[in-house]
Amino acid sequence: MYQPYPKLETSKPPPVLRAIKTVLIVDDSAVQRRIVAGFLTSWGLHSLQASNAKAAISLFKKHRPNIILSDWMMPEMNGLDLCYTLRQITPDRYIYFILLTSRSTKAEMLHAFQHGADDFLSKPIAAIELHARVTAAARLLDTQRKLKVKNRQVKAALRKTQALNNAMDKDLIAAQQLQTALIHNRHRSFGRFDFTALVENAGRVGGDLAGFFAIGATHIGFYNADVSGHDISAAMLTVRIAGFFSAEAFGQNIAVKRLETGQICPRQPHDILQSINQIMLKGSYDRSLPDHDIGTAGFNLRAPLFCPSWSPLSNFTRKRGHVSSYWP
After folding, report:
1. How far apart are CA 167 and CA 174, in angstroms?
2. Same domain? 19 vs 79
3. CA separation (Å) from 176 to 31, 171, 208, 239?
4. What is the per-residue pLDDT for 2?
5. Percent of the chain whose predicted confidence (pLDDT) is above 90
6. Rounded to an integer, what distance in angstroms lies between the CA atom of residue 22 and that of residue 46?
7. Pair 129, 188 in one domain
8. What are the residues whose beta carbons fall under 8 Å from the beta carbon of 113, sequence distance 6 or more?
9. What CATH number did the domain enclosing 39 receive?
10. Does residue 179 register a pLDDT over 80?
11. DSSP states along 117-178
């Protein structure tokens, strides 16, 4: 005996059932189909009817229902085979498949679940049980719909992030090329001195800078700067620092001075650091002052004049392998 279910006050489905687009009823019994369709209609749900699996497949391809109510035992193709076939048609779109059957053994139910069924309804069908199964299906389908929306939003955000990363990568490459260009001569000989500058940043750019330049005919200036950070702003600050030690424009080189006679000679390293600190403190910089190692060497001197600003220890490896350490 079928159990009646209280009719809704409106023909519109309640919110929980609005995730259901269409319900496809598949049963070789016309009476059974009409009974189930009557329940669904009273709950505001649209349904389609098919008397066999072939007709069900045709309706499914045309209308794309998201819930299938199918009899298990049907001629030509049973409910489980129909379930498998429909899932192959739309592998990227989930359908909720409920088997209508008089079978109720645990082994049979397990077999059906393993082959794609989502739920069961025992015959004869009670309206309250049908409503419970359909409501559970609606919740699952609504959750899946929301997840798809979220996935689309995440994918769109990832595409935007990737575009931003690509733009930032182009900027970093440009900054890397600019920073690399700051070292004009990586290797050069000054009399009996050989100088080589090597800068390796942890990322594409960084706050590291090294270089050297001739001061007149008798002296060499060399420097090593380290600005905190490994980003574009650190690299840009190294550009500012590189301008203090121009090898081409001595009028802008903070490490040299011109005597009244016109002769160019080096300034003392500690005076150079003091001048740099004054310039940096007057400027608008949002990071700590860069560390510097600055020195000068005369072609005829056995040891350089050296002044580190902060680094705890700087080493010089001599020709015979001896290491000389200089402390601030």
Report:
1. 11
2. yes
3. 78, 8, 11, 11
4. 45
5. 30
6. 5
7. no
8. none
9. 3.40.50.2300
10. no
11. --EEEESSPPHHHHHHHHHHHHHHHHHHHHHHHHHHHHHHHHHHHHHHHHHHHHHHHHHHHH
Of 150, 170, 198, the one marking the end of a domain is 150
136-142 average pLDDT score: 91
Region label for 264, one of left (φ > 0), alpha (ψ between -120 and 50) or beta (otherwise): beta
Threshold 0.70, pTM exceeds: no
Residue 6 forms part of a structural domain: no
pLDDT surpassing 70 at residue 306? no
Tell me the two tokens of residue 123: 């015959």
- Indicate if 271 and 189 belong to the same structural domain: yes
The verdict on residue 4 lying in a domain is no
Cβ-contact 35, 29 below 8 angstroms: no
The total domain count for the chain is 2
Q: What is the mean pLDDT of the chain?
A: 78
Assigned domain for 232 exists: yes
d(CA 138, CA 21): 10
| Domain annotation covers residue 200 | yes
Residue 225 and residue 137 share a domain: no
Question: What's the chain's length in residues?
Answer: 328
Beta-bridge partner residues of 272: none
Residue span of the structural domain in which 114 resides? 15-150
40 and 84 part of one domain:
yes
Express each pLDDT in 65-95 by its tens digit. 999 999 999 988 999 999 999 999 988 888 9
Q: Based on the fold, state whether residues 227 and 313 are members of the same structural domain.
A: yes
Starting at the earlier edge strand, list the strands of the sheet with 23-26. 47-50, 23-26, 67-71, 96-101, 119-122
